[in-house]
Amino acid sequence: MNWPTAIVHVDMDTFFVSVERLHDRSLIGKPVIVGGGQDGDLRRGVVAACSYESRAFGVHSAMPLAQAMRLCPEAVIVPVGRSNYGEYTSRVRTILESFTDLVEMASPDEAYLDLRGTDLLHGEPIGAAHHIRSRIAAQTGLPVSIGLATTRTQAKIASKLSKPSGLFVVAPGGEAAIVRPLSISALPGLGPKTAKRLNGANIRTLGQLIDAGEERLVRLLGDHGASYYRRAIGKGSAQVTPSRERLQISTEATFGDDIGERELIHGKLARMTMKLGSQLRKREQWAGTLTLKIRYPDFTTLTRREGIEPRTNDDTILYRRARDFFDRVWDGATPLRLLGVGVANMGDAVQGDMFEDEDGRKRERLLQTLDSIGSAKGNARLIWGSALEAKNPPAAPPEME
DNA sequence: TCTGGGGTCCTAGGACCC
DNA sequence: TCTGGGGTCCTAGGACCC
């Protein structure tokens, strides 16, 4: 078979559940739900992953946990984060990189590979895809689904068709025929809003979408329409980009109980900005944009961004900016359901500016030392101590567990 | 006892500049 | 008194993904 391009999509089946089962064999064969919110709080949590046994009861991911427990009372609930999922992501990545350098981790449990140039070492694409699947199973114990096709979109559709734990091949030239019977929702990136609009135009299957033609889809959906059409017929991208630097970092929390006390919220902001600062320094990045997100009990959600000049990764600067920003955005009365803060627009520090004075150099050394030695909690206390000694101490102390 | 947390990409409109 | 057009940067928010 002649493959002009050969893209493999690797998808770990029920990833969090599979990892938990490696650590606790008793979970095998049972309905298992991994989920929860902040600090293991189940009240406002959702399903992060669920086993096939629980799906038989109608449970699916992103469903409120309370609803999932009603549908499947016998399910075993495992708090998300009990095991170290990142460790398994790294192990899978290492295995994939033994096949080719062209590996793109699209999420912790998903990857794309470009098989060009691997035939001498690993044989033709179908054989290589088999090897990838068996090697991940043998070396990690994780079930994995594999799709092989000429483009990213087709490979992802193929891996879904192969579930659970299979291999599905879309041969070159067979793309349109394979997708025609599928629902339009099977096309990656075509979500519920777009599906609804297309249904309104009597387009329900990818066959109907293809028959509608590119022009009509552009009239219905704008520029996106052309992209859906091209990807459906197998003319989508075959570009695999080995994983990039993060473009943004954020953290957010939905509170078990809504909170309306300004000082308590400032304390949450302090902890969140410390976490962001530490992650930025670990990556040696400086952030040029701060983002703030708040959600009120009625689910109204506001997001705001503003520039930080000069760029920074200093906890205290991030905290003061976030706090001032928050005080300008919050109405001061309505309690919050959710608070989030993030950074973006990363780049290099402006040399010789931020740390010009002796105080600044001292703080930089302090932060570096703390990052290298301490636990996050220990860091938070020590850095807060230093912030209090600064010339303009923040108004409210952060809350510590 | 409705609706998590972490991301990416795209669009639209305003400000500003030439 | 008039008032184009293009480019770029910035912010807000929508849609989507796992």
Strand and helix map with partners:
Blueprint: E1 7-12, H1 15-23, E2 32-36, E3 46-50, H2 52-55, H3 65-71, E4 76-79, H4 85-97, E5 103-107, E6 110-114, H5 119-122, H6 125-140, E7 144-149, H7 152-162, E8 167-169, H8 175-179, H9 192-200, H10 206-221, H11 223-232, E9 248-259, H12 262-283, E10 286-295, E11 301-312, H13 315-329, E12 336-347, H14 358-373, H15 376-389
Parallel strand pairs: 2-4, 7-8
Antiparallel strand pairs: 1-6, 1-7, 2-3, 5-6, 9-12, 10-11, 10-12
The protein binds a DNA duplex (18 and 18 nucleotides) through residues 15, 35-38, 43-49, 61-67, 69-70, 80, 106-110, 188-194, 222-224, 246-254, 289, 299, 301-307, 338, 340, 342.
Give keywords.
MutS, DNA mismatch repair protein, domain I, Alpha-Beta Plaits, four-stranded antiparallel beta sheet, alpha+beta, globular, Dna Ligase, domain 1, disordered C terminus, five-stranded mixed beta sheet, DNA-binding, 401 residues, 3 domains
Count of structural domains: 3
Q: Examine the coordinates and then state which fold CATH places here, giving the name of the CATH topology of the largest domain.
A: Alpha-Beta Plaits
What class, by secondary structure content?
alpha+beta
The SSE order reads EHEEHHEHEEHHEHEHHHHEHEEHEHH
Unreliable segments (pLDDT under 50, ≥5 consecutive)? 375-401
What is the CATH homologous superfamily assignment of the largest domain? Reverse transcriptase/Diguanylate cyclase domain
Beta-strand percent range: 15-25%
Number of beta strands: 12
Strand order of the largest sheet: 5-6-1-7-8
Q: In CATH, what is the class of the largest domain?
A: Alpha Beta
Report the helical percentage: 40-55%
